[in-house]
Design goal:
The chain has one helix spanning 14-19; strands spanning 2-7, 10-11, 22-26, 34-40, 62-68, 75-88, 97-103. With 115 residues, it is mainly beta.
Length: 115
């Protein structure tokens, strides 16, 4: 099994792939499809959380996850915008993480434009 990850329609660079510890994609009939990307975070020498300012993690930035099984071609599992984040902070080393939530494009339906 192989996978590919895209941020804003560009293939993820190795350093971006290295950020992601786990990817979960849920697909269900009559429900928005969702992916969750778990990214471990820690503080740097100045006490600032790492990975919080990554441009690839902006609200509504696009994420696509593709998978290839055996000799079959790559198939997209999800392609949609980032809709939210769940932060888990811990005082224990290695216990803090950001979970990035991605939905399919149905999240863009029924939105009102306000000026």
């Amino acid at each position: 099994i192989e996978y590919r990850l895209f941020f804003n329609n560009s293939p993820a660079k190795q350093e971006q792939l290295d950020l992601v510890e786990e990817i979960t994609v849920e697909q269900d009939v009559d429900m928005a499809w969702e992916a969750r990307l778990e990214i471990p975070i820690c503080t740097d020498d100045t006490g600032k959380w790492s990975q919080e300012d990554e441009k690839i993690l902006a609200d509504f930035a696009r994420v696509r996850v593709e998978v290839k099984i055996g000799k079959d071609p790559f198939a997209p599992l999800i392609d949609g915008p980032i809709v939210g984040f769940d932060n888990t902070m811990s005082s224990e080393p290695g216990g803090s993480k950001i979970t990035v939530r991605v939905h399919d494009d149905s999240v863009l339906l029924n939105r009102e434009e306000k000026i």
